[in-house]
Design a protein that fits this description.
The protein has 179 residues and is mostly beta strands. It has two helices and ten strands. Strands 1, 2, 3, 4, 5, 8 and 9 form a seven-stranded mixed β-sheet that branches. It has a three-stranded antiparallel β-sheet with strand order 6-7-10, with no helix packed on it. Strand 8 and strand 9 form a beta hairpin. The chain is globular. It starts with 7 loop residues before the first strand and ends in a 13-residue tail after the last strand.
Protein backbone atom coordinates (compact mmCIF):
# COMPACT_ATOMS: atom_id res chain seq x y z
CA UNK A 1 0.00 0.00 0.00
CA UNK A 2 1.26 3.44 -0.87
CA UNK A 3 1.26 6.20 1.72
CA UNK A 4 -0.79 9.26 0.84
CA UNK A 5 1.13 12.47 0.24
CA UNK A 6 0.21 16.05 1.17
CA UNK A 7 -1.92 17.95 0.70
CA UNK A 8 -4.32 15.61 2.48
CA UNK A 9 -7.94 16.25 1.50
CA UNK A 10 -10.72 13.91 2.54
CA UNK A 11 -14.45 13.39 2.27
CA UNK A 12 -16.00 11.86 5.37
CA UNK A 13 -19.16 9.82 5.78
CA UNK A 14 -21.28 10.49 8.85
CA UNK A 15 -23.27 7.44 9.99
CA UNK A 16 -24.46 8.74 13.36
CA UNK A 17 -24.84 12.05 15.14
CA UNK A 18 -21.16 13.08 15.36
CA UNK A 19 -17.87 12.41 13.62
CA UNK A 20 -15.57 10.06 15.50
CA UNK A 21 -12.13 10.53 17.00
CA UNK A 22 -10.67 7.56 15.08
CA UNK A 23 -11.49 6.97 11.41
CA UNK A 24 -10.35 4.12 9.18
CA UNK A 25 -9.00 5.12 5.76
CA UNK A 26 -8.22 3.08 2.66
CA UNK A 27 -4.97 1.20 3.21
CA UNK A 28 -3.20 1.28 6.55
CA UNK A 29 -3.65 4.95 7.43
CA UNK A 30 -6.09 6.35 9.99
CA UNK A 31 -7.52 9.76 10.78
CA UNK A 32 -7.34 11.05 14.34
CA UNK A 33 -9.26 13.98 15.74
CA UNK A 34 -7.20 16.84 17.10
CA UNK A 35 -8.16 15.94 20.69
CA UNK A 36 -7.04 12.32 20.12
CA UNK A 37 -3.74 13.44 18.54
CA UNK A 38 -2.96 15.97 21.27
CA UNK A 39 -3.72 13.51 24.08
CA UNK A 40 -1.71 10.74 22.35
CA UNK A 41 1.36 12.98 22.10
CA UNK A 42 0.93 14.48 25.60
CA UNK A 43 0.84 11.02 27.20
CA UNK A 44 3.88 9.85 25.23
CA UNK A 45 2.20 6.89 23.57
CA UNK A 46 4.04 5.22 20.67
CA UNK A 47 3.31 3.47 17.40
CA UNK A 48 1.69 6.18 15.27
CA UNK A 49 3.71 8.06 12.68
CA UNK A 50 2.94 11.14 10.61
CA UNK A 51 0.41 13.43 12.29
CA UNK A 52 -0.10 15.43 9.08
CA UNK A 53 -3.04 17.88 9.02
CA UNK A 54 -6.03 16.98 6.87
CA UNK A 55 -8.50 19.25 5.09
CA UNK A 56 -12.06 17.93 5.29
CA UNK A 57 -13.63 19.05 2.02
CA UNK A 58 -17.03 17.42 2.51
CA UNK A 59 -19.08 15.47 5.03
CA UNK A 60 -21.77 13.20 3.56
CA UNK A 61 -24.60 12.33 5.93
CA UNK A 62 -25.40 8.67 5.30
CA UNK A 63 -28.56 8.72 7.41
CA UNK A 64 -30.82 11.61 8.21
CA UNK A 65 -29.20 14.88 9.15
CA UNK A 66 -28.05 15.21 12.78
CA UNK A 67 -30.44 17.07 15.08
CA UNK A 68 -27.80 19.55 16.22
CA UNK A 69 -25.39 21.46 13.97
CA UNK A 70 -22.45 19.31 12.88
CA UNK A 71 -19.05 20.30 14.23
CA UNK A 72 -16.16 19.04 12.10
CA UNK A 73 -13.05 18.66 14.22
CA UNK A 74 -9.55 19.14 12.84
CA UNK A 75 -8.09 15.78 11.76
CA UNK A 76 -4.60 14.38 11.32
CA UNK A 77 -3.57 11.44 9.17
CA UNK A 78 -1.31 8.86 10.81
CA UNK A 79 0.24 5.51 9.93
CA UNK A 80 0.39 2.76 12.56
CA UNK A 81 3.91 1.30 12.63
CA UNK A 82 4.75 -2.18 11.42
CA UNK A 83 5.81 -3.75 14.71
CA UNK A 84 8.30 -6.51 15.46
CA UNK A 85 5.64 -8.60 17.22
CA UNK A 86 4.86 -11.82 15.35
CA UNK A 87 1.63 -13.77 15.24
CA UNK A 88 2.25 -17.24 16.61
CA UNK A 89 1.78 -19.56 13.63
CA UNK A 90 1.19 -22.57 15.89
CA UNK A 91 -1.11 -21.21 18.61
CA UNK A 92 -3.31 -18.85 16.62
CA UNK A 93 -6.80 -19.74 15.38
CA UNK A 94 -6.32 -18.37 11.88
CA UNK A 95 -7.29 -20.33 8.76
CA UNK A 96 -4.86 -19.73 5.91
CA UNK A 97 -5.01 -20.81 2.29
CA UNK A 98 -1.24 -21.40 2.27
CA UNK A 99 1.53 -21.19 4.85
CA UNK A 100 3.68 -18.06 4.97
CA UNK A 101 6.64 -18.10 2.59
CA UNK A 102 8.48 -15.24 4.31
CA UNK A 103 9.13 -15.71 8.01
CA UNK A 104 9.99 -12.00 8.37
CA UNK A 105 6.63 -10.53 7.32
CA UNK A 106 4.68 -13.78 7.78
CA UNK A 107 2.25 -12.60 5.13
CA UNK A 108 -0.15 -15.22 3.87
CA UNK A 109 -3.65 -15.60 2.50
CA UNK A 110 -5.92 -15.38 5.54
CA UNK A 111 -9.34 -17.00 5.07
CA UNK A 112 -10.69 -16.68 8.62
CA UNK A 113 -9.62 -15.48 12.05
CA UNK A 114 -11.01 -16.85 15.31
CA UNK A 115 -8.56 -15.30 17.72
CA UNK A 116 -4.81 -14.98 17.58
CA UNK A 117 -1.84 -14.67 19.90
CA UNK A 118 1.58 -13.11 19.55
CA UNK A 119 4.81 -15.02 19.98
CA UNK A 120 6.34 -14.34 23.40
CA UNK A 121 9.21 -11.84 23.52
CA UNK A 122 8.59 -10.43 20.01
CA UNK A 123 6.62 -7.31 21.00
CA UNK A 124 8.75 -4.15 21.05
CA UNK A 125 6.53 -2.20 23.48
CA UNK A 126 4.64 -0.05 20.95
CA UNK A 127 1.24 1.13 22.13
CA UNK A 128 -0.39 0.58 18.73
CA UNK A 129 1.06 -1.42 15.83
CA UNK A 130 0.48 -3.82 12.94
CA UNK A 131 1.90 -7.25 13.86
CA UNK A 132 3.81 -9.45 11.44
CA UNK A 133 1.44 -12.07 10.05
CA UNK A 134 -1.65 -9.90 10.57
CA UNK A 135 -0.63 -6.65 8.84
CA UNK A 136 -4.17 -5.43 8.18
CA UNK A 137 -5.13 -5.48 11.85
CA UNK A 138 -4.05 -3.17 14.64
CA UNK A 139 -2.96 -4.43 18.03
CA UNK A 140 -2.81 -2.11 21.03
CA UNK A 141 -1.23 -2.23 24.46
CA UNK A 142 -3.10 -2.21 27.77
CA UNK A 143 -1.82 1.35 28.18
CA UNK A 144 -3.51 2.35 24.91
CA UNK A 145 -6.77 0.68 26.00
CA UNK A 146 -6.70 2.66 29.25
CA UNK A 147 -5.93 5.85 27.28
CA UNK A 148 -9.00 5.32 25.02
CA UNK A 149 -11.28 4.71 28.01
CA UNK A 150 -9.90 7.62 30.06
CA UNK A 151 -10.35 10.13 27.22
CA UNK A 152 -13.69 8.60 26.11
CA UNK A 153 -12.49 8.47 22.50
CA UNK A 154 -15.16 7.62 19.96
CA UNK A 155 -15.41 5.36 16.93
CA UNK A 156 -12.86 2.88 18.23
CA UNK A 157 -13.76 -0.65 19.32
CA UNK A 158 -11.14 -2.70 21.12
CA UNK A 159 -11.38 -6.50 21.12
CA UNK A 160 -8.95 -8.83 22.90
CA UNK A 161 -6.88 -10.64 20.25
CA UNK A 162 -7.99 -14.06 21.45
CA UNK A 163 -11.66 -13.01 20.92
CA UNK A 164 -11.20 -11.29 17.56
CA UNK A 165 -13.30 -12.93 14.81
CA UNK A 166 -13.25 -12.30 11.07
CA UNK A 167 -14.82 -15.09 9.05
CA UNK A 168 -16.59 -13.82 5.91
CA UNK A 169 -17.09 -17.33 4.47
CA UNK A 170 -18.19 -18.98 7.74
CA UNK A 171 -15.30 -21.46 7.69
CA UNK A 172 -15.08 -21.70 11.45
CA UNK A 173 -11.94 -21.70 13.56
CA UNK A 174 -8.76 -23.41 12.48
CA UNK A 175 -8.24 -26.79 14.12
CA UNK A 176 -6.29 -26.77 17.36
CA UNK A 177 -2.71 -28.03 17.01
CA UNK A 178 -2.25 -31.66 18.03
CA UNK A 179 0.53 -32.58 20.39
Amino acid sequence: MLTSLPPHRVELELHGEELGDFIRCPGYERLLSERFAEAFRAEGLTGLEGFHPVEVVRVRCMRRRPLKPLTVPRYYIVSPCFGRAMVDVVLNRVRVSKPPTCMECRSTGIDAIHGFVLEPDTWGGEDIFRPRGMQGELVVSERFKDFVERHELTNIRLTPTEQFVWDPSNLGPAPLPTT
